[in-house]
Amino acid sequence: MRTGSSRIVREDARQNRQRVLDAAREVFTRRGLDVPMATIARRAGVGVATLYRHFPNRQALLTAVFERQLAECASVVDEALADPDPWRAFRTAVEKLGALQAAGHELTAAFAAALPGAFDLGAERHEAERKLAELVSRAKATGRLRADFRVEDLVLLLKAVSGVATSTAEAAAGSRRLVAYLLQSFETATDRPLPPPARFPGYPGP
How many CA atoms lie less than 13 Å away from 57 in the CB half-sphere? Predict the structure, then answer.
């Protein structure tokens, strides 16, 4: 009986943690990162003590929400690598990553300011770069992706999406259209010479 009760308690705790993370992401996006913790707890439908039991301070909650965003991006790339069609995998990954960026661009920028070391993820970052490079390499091998495409161009695309994305539905549609235009330019049918690739702070390139 105690085993069953313990299992129920653990499941309740897991659900409470997920509710807090969902609420925090929503509230942080709408109202910024300085919103009171009590507001997040109310939005999640839990007590303040429950929130602090899972996240002892604001920094811990911010980090957890940020890591969850990173995990969503990593999941997109992993799913793409499991697709037997490399060109479809590349297109789908770019579309999904663009949509995630459009939906959370303000939050990502806020995290970068609030968590100066958040993007210094060491092995996790290198693994993400490796998988993206593999995705690009496989797409090139099909002959569909232009030969001079670089992984840094994905960073450029996401930055471009951030530039047009806002909270409005019209801007979300605009970001999807921008991604569609860029995907067309990535194909070998439009393989005209490009300027040198962009370099971004914190991204060493090849």
Answer: 1
